[in-house]
């Protein structure tokens, strides 16, 4: 289930591109539909952000971020100016509530607003609020389960300002973890028996944060964020070799570092990453009734570090693979396959956002 934060909802008129704004950069994806739930990847592009432009999901420098958005849009070659943008999960409050069935849209809105007062620690006029009817309530079929989502208005306005300054028009605002789940649902459907009954753990290792979620039959049953990411390795490189952060990041990506780097820095970082993964799963087992995980998917920029997936699989004793959100999609003629293979795991959120075009 995907969720619009409705203050931006317009008709999802095609074409619409997914725009993922993270700490390290901006990613863009454009898809077209070739059949029911079948897609072709038309374009994908990424543009790095200067350090400090986005911190903890907050846009600190609108000019720098909008300039990066302008560049990524141009680089991609798309002509679509309508965009779906993600909000970091930490900045959105979500709550499932039960309401009487049979209410009109207006009556639902009134009920949701009165319920929202209990759960949101801000004045309602400072908040952008939306809701989505999930379906009949489990224990009372005459009632409906409604998902409520709220975020501070200024956080939305910053993202809107960035897109508009780059000449684009935001049409959909989604939660990044929901967008990632939309992309992952396509992949789990390709598992044996369509992934039915499979408990799937998804680790997205970003620049600053690792987002961990556990999915079962299309529902998120657990999620948490851990302060661990690729920037820690970059900082080690900065300290050891006296480089600027930007130089260290570029050399890390290009594999252009002195001989001792792999043993002294990369290997300990990978060990740490594997430890974070096993620790997160222990938290999951001790705080839920679940006792096993069937499959681990790794995503994010760090997922493609050679040997990391094998190390995680060895430590966790669970089948582990790097996930490409574009698996099973057709590729447009201009898509560079080699580049796509190297970068795909970092595009999970952008791909999920681009899929909103077809809701």
From TrEMBL:
Domain SHS2: 16-184
Organism: Noviherbaspirillum cavernae
Pfam families: PilM_2 (PF11104)
GO terms, biological process: cell division
Lineage: Bacteria, Pseudomonadati, Pseudomonadota, Betaproteobacteria, Burkholderiales
PANTHER family documented for this protein: CELL DIVISION PROTEIN FTSA-RELATED, ETHANOLAMINE UTILIZATION PROTEIN EUTJ
Protein name: Pilus assembly protein PilM
InterPro entries: ATPase_NBD (IPR043129), FtsA/MreB (IPR050696), PilM (IPR005883), SHS2_FtsA (IPR003494)
């Amino acid at each position: 289930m995907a969720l619009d934060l409705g203050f931006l909802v317009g008709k999802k008129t095609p074409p619409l591109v997914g725009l993922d704004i993270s700490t390290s950069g901006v990613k863009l994806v454009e898809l077209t539909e070739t059949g029911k739930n079948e897609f072709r990847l038309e374009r994908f592009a990424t543009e790095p952000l200067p350090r400090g432009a986005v911190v903890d999901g907050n846009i600190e420098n609108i000019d720098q971020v909008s300039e990066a958005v302008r560049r990524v849009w141009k680089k991609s070659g798309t002509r679509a100016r309508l965009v779906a943008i993600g909000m970091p999960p930490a900045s959105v409050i979500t709550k499932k509530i039960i309401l009487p069935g049979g209410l009109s849209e207006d009556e639902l809105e009134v009920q949701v607003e009165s319920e929202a007062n209990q759960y949101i620690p801000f004045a309602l006029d400072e908040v952008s609020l939306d809701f989505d009817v999930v379906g009949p309530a489990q224990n009372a079929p005459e009632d409906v389960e409604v998902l409520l989502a709220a975020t501070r208005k200024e956080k939305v306005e910053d993202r809107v300002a960035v897109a508009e300054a780059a000449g684009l028009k935001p049409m959909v605002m989604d939660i990044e973890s929901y967008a990632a789940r939309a992309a992952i649902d396509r992949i789990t459907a390709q598992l044996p028996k369509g992934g039915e009954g499979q408990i799937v753990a998804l680790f997205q290792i970003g620049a600053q944060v690792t987002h961990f979620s556990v999915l079962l039959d299309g529902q998120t049953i657990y999620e948490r964020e851990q302060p661990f990411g690729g920037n820690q390795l970059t900082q080690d490189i900065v300290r050891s070799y006296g480089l600027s952060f930007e130089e260290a990041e570029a050399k890390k990506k290009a594999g252009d570092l002195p001989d001792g780097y792999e043993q002294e820095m990369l290997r300990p970082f990978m060990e740490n990453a594997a430890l974070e993964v096993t620790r997160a799963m222990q938290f999951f087992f001790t705080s839920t009734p679940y006792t096993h995980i069937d499959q681990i998917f790794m995503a994010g920029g760090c997922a493609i570090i050679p040997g990391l997936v094998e190390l995680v699989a060895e430590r966790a004793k669970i089948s582990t693979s790097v996930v490409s959100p574009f698996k099973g999609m057709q590729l447009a003629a201009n898509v560079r396959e080699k580049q796509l293979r190297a970068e795909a795991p970092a595009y999970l959120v952008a791909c999920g956002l681009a899929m909103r075009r077809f809701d």
